[in-house]
Design brief:
The protein is mostly helical. Helices cover 53% and strands 0% of the residues. Among the domains are: 45 residues, no CATH class; 29 residues.
Length: 174
């Protein structure tokens, strides 16, 4: 039986795969360097390396865990506190509801009326105080009509006989 030699590419692949048998788990997934590089980048991206995102250090991770525990613990404490508190426990002053006064509606109305009367009395006193100091302004002086002492009616008539110009009429320029 005559055997023909294997093509060069097949022989090369066969030799590389034969070497991989001795590597015990460290076998490349591809023989092509481009494909191998792409696979490595994908593996690193899945781990969060070289993605441009900041990688948290161990102290930062511990600080975040502590803050989460404190937040969640205080939330659970606030939720479960009413169930585990004793029945005789008095709520604090801040959480006590404001008690309404023990006055009837009539007593409340009388108290409101007394307050309004006191306010009116105070306003009236202020008004009276300012009214005492108030001096009305002097009346404006009225123009005195020109008494025609010399009985020259023509001159006065001319003054009152002037025609008042209409606003829409064109006025001569002076």
């Amino acid at each position: 039986m005559v055997t023909t030699p294997m093509p060069a590419t097949a022989r090369k692949r066969s030799e590389q795969y034969a070497k991989n048998v001795t590597k015990r788990g460290h076998v490349k997934k591809s023989l092509s360097p481009r494909v191998e590089k792409r696979l490595e980048e994908e593996r690193l991206r899945k781990k969060g390396i070289k993605t441009g995102q900041p990688v948290l250090g161990s102290s930062a991770r511990k600080a975040i865990v502590v803050l989460l525990l404190i937040t969640l613990g205080s939330t659970l404490y606030q939720i479960l506190q009413p169930f585990f508190s004793s029945a005789g426990h008095q709520p604090s002053q801040a959480s006590k509801p404001k008690s309404s006064p023990d006055l009837t509606r009539q007593q409340q109305a009388k108290a409101a009326e007394a307050i309004l009367q006191a306010m009116n009395r105070e306003a009236a006193e202020r008004y009276m105080k300012t009214a005492k100091d108030y001096k009305p302004p002097a009346p404006p002086e009225m123009p005195v009509e020109d008494v025609d002492e010399d009985n020259d009616d023509d001159q006065d008539d001319d003054f009152f006989a002037r025609e008042v110009p209409k606003p829409d009429a064109k006025q001569p320029l002076v």
